[in-house]
Write a structure and sequence with these properties.
Number of strands of chain A: 0
Oligomer: heterodimer
Number of helices of chain B: 6
Largest sheet of chain B: 2 strands, antiparallel
Shape of chain B: flat
Strand order of the largest sheet of chain B: 1-2
Structural class of chain A: mainly alpha
Distance between the termini of chain A: 65 Å
Structural class of chain B: mainly alpha
Strand content of chain B: 5-15%
Radius of gyration of chain A: 22 Å
Low-confidence stretches of chain B: 1-5, 162-166
Distance between the termini of chain B: 15 Å
Number of domains of chain A: 2
Helix content of chain B: 55-70%
Shape of chain A: globular
Chain lengths: ~180, ~170
């Protein structure tokens, strides 16, 4: 049942993404992107990942507000320019070739709903699930993984965020400090 | 200070924002502090806290929200969150020679009024929350300040502060 609902949402997301690409109005494009994001959030909720669903939802709302506020209110309302036919065909051919190459990998995946990590007896995922509460004291297993067992990854993630915002500030700052004085 | 006719949105939006901003902020703080017990955590809660300031900016104009959380303070808070996270990691080395060692005493969360059960995990959540909130607010301010304007037939990026002086 869950698979059918997720499939419906996936089709909806593909349609929304296509609308966002093909429409000429920037506002409808941004709203279509928002619809895709909310559908993705519901998909996360359905497969049992409420942490990611919450994060996806709030980031979607904030980025929608930022996009509308920061881009739409300017005079950049239309997207013009035709798509290169040869480039489009080349992209489609490349995607098709990658799909053909990736088909054996799809066939070897475990069935839907069974995590691949727990199929091995000595996998770390099994250890986290069985001993996570006792070893870290966090009832939320996701928190115990991202901030205790795999905190180094989270440090890298925080560094990525810090660096990207540093870069965005450096690029978007219009006035320099020397000019001001 | 404000030379615009409308510094923000309409009276209805301003009233609702005035009532709701505290609750939204509190919800973000709740998501951050309960990140180790219920779904959520530093990233999601930080975004909700940042959205409070975004709401203030949209409803009351830029000066109101910058008066509460200035650009300099936001960048300092951003760095503070990152340094706090790193400090927790390095304290693990000082304690037991392991990076990110969970050095505070851990307990299985039982009963009421026992929020901090998971050692360093709530502290890390708070650090990440501060960092994410400050940095996302900064991004919003930077993007909202800049305008694209036609100057002498060319599109250029202009700040609103500059435009007001002209």
């Amino acid at each position: 049942m869950v698979e059918i609902i997720i499939s419906v949402f996936l089709v909806f997301m593909v349609i929304g993404a296509l609308i966002a690409l093909e429409t000429t109005d920037l506002l409808s494009s941004v709203i279509s992107i928002g619809a895709v994001g909310f559908a993705l959030s519901i998909c996360f909720l359905l497969v049992g990942a409420p942490d990611i669903a919450i994060t996806q939802m709030v980031v979607e709302v904030l980025s929608l507000v930022i996009l509308i506020r920061a881009t739409i209110r300017h005079d950049l309302t239309t997207i013009d320019g035709d798509r290169d036919f040869f480039g489009l065909m080349a992209t489609l051919a490349l995607i098709f070739a990658l799909l053909l190459l990736g088909l054996p990998a799809f066939l070897s995946l475990p069935p839907f709903g069974t995590p691949a990590m727990s199929q091995m007896m000595e996998s770390p995922a099994r250890h986290y699930l069985s001993g996570g509460l006792r070893e870290t004291g966090a009832a939320n297993i996701v928190a115990s993984v991202i901030l205790d067992y795999r905190a180094y990854d989270t440090l890298g993630e925080a560094t990525v965020l810090f660096t990207s915002i540093l870069g965005a500030l450096a690029i978007l700052r219009v006035y320099s400090r020397k000019k001001k004085s | 200070m404000n030379q615009n006719k409308q510094p923000g949105m309409s009276l209805i939006v301003q009233t609702v924002a005035r009532w709701l901003k505290g609750f939204i902020f509190l919800y973000g703080v709740y998501i951050i502090f309960y990140g180790h017990l219920s779904p959520g955590g530093g990233f999601a809660g930080g975004v909700i806290v940042a959205s409070t300031f975004v709401l203030l900016t949209l409803a009351f104009g830029k000066e109101r929200s910058l008066g509460k959380l200035g650009k300099l303070l936001a960048s300092e808070l951003d760095s503070l969150g990152a340094l706090m996270f790193l400090l927790i990691a390095v304290l693990g080395i000082a304690w037991g020679r392991i990076f990110f060692l969970n050095f505070i005493e851990k307990a299985v969360p039982t009963g009421n009024f026992k929020l901090f059960s998971a050692g360093i995990i709530p502290l890390c959540n708070v650090a990440i929350g501060i960092k994410v909130a400050a940095s996302l607010f900064m991004i919003f301010i930077i993007l909202a300040v800049i305008r694209v304007q036609e100057v002498k037939g060319r599109r250029r990026l202009v700040t609103t502060e500059k435009r007001r002086k002209e």
